[in-house]
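S., here's the first fold you wanted:
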Amino acid sequence: MKWKGQDEKEFDIVYRNGGLIDAAAVEYLCDKVNWPRRPAHKVDAALKNSFLVASVTLEESGAPPEKRRLIGTARCTSDGAFNATIWDVIVDLSLIHI
């Protein structure tokens, strides 16, 4: 999906499931939605120990991965048989109109 910023620069909106997400980026997103801060090492452990982590990033075409901007995330824990729980669904409110 494409999105144009205020400066008319074009960005891709990219969904991923699996892979690593930087705990600092998640905490920055939490700050944007007024969630309380959590210790970075605990956020990192929660992300690494989740059954699935999904992310949505805003990416400028041709930019390196470190320039990706996390705009949404969620994680899931599971017993691997019957039950799963979705946790920490966060969306950057400044982009909610897209």
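And the second, which I think is the more interesting of the pair:
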Amino acid sequence: MRVLSRSWAKSKLWDLRKKGTTSCPVMYTIAAHSSLVSQVRFEPSGGHALMTAGYDKLLKLWSTRDFSLVASLASHEGKIMGADMLPGLECLASVSYD
């Protein structure tokens, strides 16, 4: 099992299969945005992609193979408050203050 978290500008992924008695090791830290990360989602049909959204007005797609940036989408004029995607990356949706 893997767990994602979000914070100021970074997203972290923990592998709960490797948990110790007091903590789990962080698998990856993604410096995803230049401001607060407001949303993190795995692609629902296979988890082959990760989507992050942030207050920096960007929606980003990452490969879960090596957590490299696949796309950075800039179409909002205000901070993105939430986002989601359909299985297979058929469609992305985001909501912002613009």
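Why I say that: Confidence is low (pLDDT under 50) at residues 1-6. The beta strands are 2-6, 11-15, 26-30, 37-42, 49-54, 58-63, 69-74, 80-85, 92-96.

Talk tomorrow,
H.
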